Amino acid sequence: MRILVVEDDTNLNRQLKDALTEGGYVVDVAFDGEEGHFLGDTEPYDAVVLDIGLPQMDGLSVLEEWRRAGKKMPVLLLTARDRWSDKVQGIDAGADDYVAKPFHMEEVLARVRALVRRAAGQASNEISAGSVRLDVKAGKVTVDGHSVKLTSHELRLLSYLMHHKGKVISRTELTEHLYDQDFDRDSNTIEVFVGRLRKKLPDDCIQTVRGLGYQIAED
């Protein structure tokens, strides 16, 4: 899953990126509204963490521009605790949730997980496909109740496929959602990790749809 953080405070931006990366996400960052708007307008993200008080272009304007352009990625707003009006304006502008500063990183992570989960139509942090079970919060995978050790890249790939069970996911879409903007998208990395995953999971878990991509079938 790929997340965009738009926050002008350098230290907070770094802390958010570190926490989200530790939580298993690929994270792009921006430090002002114009840069954040450009990235959100041109790159596919599974969620955005967006501060309201940004230089160049404020967060509410960024959000309104995205929604007018038809961008549907879930957005978590960062607001000042005493500015209730910002929260109301943010929700009306198209935000999906908000958290007030100062906040605990665990709360941000929980809210991002919820946004990604709801956007994918999942009701729980535990997603199952046959005998395979993914605990999104813990970042753990089991098969028939037995723990399966995955690398961070393998886990991100499996997580994206399981969040979109029943949908055929192209190699391009996987690359766009699993790696940051500097990743070499002409490489065969996706095929390599699919091959490694298949050795650790049941034979019929990840299916290839020839010429289209990969899918994990609905139960």
Describe this structure in words.
The chain is α/β, with parallel strands linked by helices and 219 residues long. Helices cover 41% and strands 21% of the residues. It has helices at 10-22, 33-42, 59-68, 84-93, 105-119, 152-163, 171-178, 189-200, and strands at residues 2-6, 26-30, 47-51, 75-80, 97-101, 126-129, 132-135, 140-143, 146-148, 207-209, 213-215. A 5-stranded parallel β-sheet has the order 2-1-3-4-5, sandwiched between helices. A 4-stranded antiparallel β-sheet has the order 6-7-8-9, covered by helices on one side. Strand 3 (47-51), helix 3 and strand 4 form a beta-alpha-beta unit. Helix 1 (10-22) crosses helix 5 (105-119), helix 2 runs parallel beside helix 3 and helix 6 (152-163) packs across helix 8. It is globular, with a radius of gyration of 18 Å. 34% of the residues are buried. The mean pLDDT is 92.
